[in-house]
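OP here, attaching both records as promised.
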Amino acid sequence: MADKNFGVKQINLIGASGVPTIESPNNLNINATQVAISTDLSVGQNISVTGSALIGGSVEATNFYGDGSYSTSGQWVLGANGTSSYTFTGIGVTNNTENPVLYLARGRYYKFLNNSGGSHPFQIRVSSGGAAYDNGVINNGSSSGIIEFIIPFNAPNTLFYQCTSHAGMGNTIYIYPSI
């Protein structure tokens, strides 16, 4: 692994086959198995990454090229209001909205970052109090970290999210379009 520091930006290269090259002030080329960037990355015009890029800050571009099938359609940060409700911050909700109803689309990719304190496992279920719905769900029932949901086209029209320790923490997930 090689680390290169460009100003205040830290770039960690895993499996690098060479070092990053700056062709001009506007172009950065990286050839590595994986690139992890801990803050925002700013390049004047073009960045080329061979392998995967994990950027912890924001990315802004006029155009993106490549396979975008796993681009996140929505992400929420979860907290808790005691044992009565999850609080959501993210797409479609204001800060700390309690137990919102969610409307998610088939074929899309969503993330839930469970920061509720470790005692509120977040689970996507077939019904309120029902069995876990694991089709397309990664890390379902986790008490911390990221729960991913890639919604299959054959998902039910209605699902639920719920804390596995506190039944009152949760609400409905509507999957559209209805089938």
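Record two, same layout:
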Amino acid sequence: MTTSATGDRSRAGFTLLEILLAIGMIAMISAVMIGLSSNLLAGRAAAPEDVFWKAAEAARRASLKSGRESELSFDDRQKAFVLDDGTARKTFPVPGADLSLGVDFLGPKGGASSSVLVGGTLLETGALPRVSFYADGTCSPFRVQFRSKGSAHVVSIDPWTCAQALGPQEGSP
């Protein structure tokens, strides 16, 4: 009973076709998983901060296009950001916002605001009723404070770009 050396060698490894099929199956499974995960992420409710950035971008764009000042405020009863460009008002509601949600526009750090300790959370008082976006693409210097269920965090806004200011943020380690 003799076996040939070529018969044993042909079953020793995978063929190129088997490797290509395995890679194709892995790619198909990966594509399905990526598609499912993006659908799950797209279905989540927008956070108040996400809605704020959308409203701020719209306010800046409206000012640049019209050549006029636009104002952005937060309606506490409707739980929505309100953009007033001088001709029309547009609202940006925060979906799924609970009653404890509060958004305050604050003056620049070191301004004339004061702080109060509420339930172990330091909140700033002296909020601005609205912030302005100008025709040259800049905005008034401000910070935005998001409050919900006893916690609060503040985001500083760069007045030249109307984007989040770089550097350490308040309330972060």
